[in-house]
């Protein structure tokens, strides 16, 4: 899963100059730039595993959340414009996904930020070679 998050982060970073943090990043919000993105896993489903001649395979489906954080005084139109011009392109480039959703900007007073969340889902098959399984 870490590899998938890293690839998605790289895709976002390729389409925006904003820093991209993982949702579990412990760095304090007040030490981050005035605008930044937060990437995290919202949900994950794993299917029963199956064997091929060379691999152990598991189907999966994941929903990711990208949060665009801006100063609290940012106008809602500016939040939408920034999200759809920079963030959405990175979400589209990250992988072939089934759906993308974005919400309504909301002020998070504790963080003194205006935030717009976008989510997207991704499905695939995780493969582990049989040699890797035997070594464990």
Question: How would you describe this protein?
Answer:
- The chain has helices at residues 2-15, 76-94, 130-135; strands at residues 20-22, 36-51, 55-71, 100-102, 106-108, 113-129.
- It is α+β, with helices and mostly antiparallel strands and 136 residues long.
- The mean pLDDT is 84.
- The protein starts with a helix and ends with a helix.
- Strands 1, 2, 3, 4, 5 and 6 form a six-stranded mixed sheet that branches.
Task: Write the topology of this structure.
Blueprint: H1 2-15, E1 20-22, E2 36-51, E3 55-71, H2 76-94, E4 100-102, E5 106-108, E6 113-129, H3 130-135
Parallel strand pairs: 1-2
Antiparallel strand pairs: 2-3, 3-6, 4-6, 5-6
Instruction: State the total count of DSSP E strands.
Output: 6
* Percentage of residues in strands: 35-45%
Helix content: 25-40%
Sequence of secondary-structure elements:
HEEEHEEEH
Query: What would you call the structural class?
Result: alpha+beta
Largest sheet: 6 strands, mixed
Q: Tally the helices: what do you get? A: 3
The backbone outline, from C-alpha atoms, is elongated
Amino- and carboxy-terminal Cα gap: 18 Å
Mean pLDDT: 84
> Could you tell me the radius of gyration in angstroms?
17 Å
Low-confidence stretches: none
Supply the key terms.
elongated, six-stranded mixed sheet, single chain, 3 helices, 136 residues, alpha+beta
